[in-house]
TrEMBL record:
One of the protein's GO biological processes: electron transport chain
Catalytic activity: 4 Fe(II)-[cytochrome c] + O2 + 8 H(+)(in) = 4 Fe(III)-[cytochrome c] + 2 H2O + 4 H(+)(out)
Topology of this chain in the membrane: Multi-pass membrane protein
Self-association state and partner proteins as the record states: Associates with subunits I, II and III to form cytochrome c oxidase.
Single GO molecular function: cytochrome-c oxidase activity
Pfam families the UniProt entry points to: Cyt_c_ox_IV (PF12270)
Name of this chain's protein: Cytochrome c oxidase polypeptide 4
């Protein structure tokens, strides 16, 4: 986590320098406030990563003598094929189009989203994958 903390520390320095320069060149309030809030967001993430890195053991990425093979391992199980993400996306598209064409479409989309999310969650309990 130390590498990540250093990256966000560098971003913090960048936004600390860019924000006053932006203010003096543009005198625009909205962009300056956005840059200030971005600085504080990056500071919050940097602080969190710095505190967590003290509690955890050093990872291969944090050591100079770390090898790539030390960080290898199983990343998780990913399905080879699934139809449920497509149906969830269609349900979301219907939900977003609801205010345009009528709120009744959003209500239908909530029902279909419930059904498609249930299918996505329980896809390994039925069918070819349920071995």
């Amino acid at each position: 986590m130390k590498v990540e903390a250093w990256i966000f520390g560098g971003l913090m320095i960048f936004f600390a320098i860019v924000t006053p320069v932006y203010w003096f060149l543009s005198h625009e309030l909205t962009g300056t406030v956005a840059l200030i809030l971005t600085f504080f967001l990056v500071m919050m993430i940097c602080t969190y990563l710095g505190l967590v890195s003290r509690r955890l053991a050093a990872r291969p990425e944090d050591r100079r003598d770390g090898e790539i093979a030390e960080g290898a391992g199983e990343y998780g199980f990913f399905p080879p094929q699934s139809k449920w993400p497509l149906f969830c996306a269609v349900s979301f598209a219907l939900f977003v189009l609801g205010p345009v064409f009528g709120w009744w479409l959003s209500i239908i989309a909530v029902g279909t989203a419930f059904a498609t999310l249930t299918g996505w969650i329980y896809q390994y309990y039925r069918g070819d994958y349920a071995h």
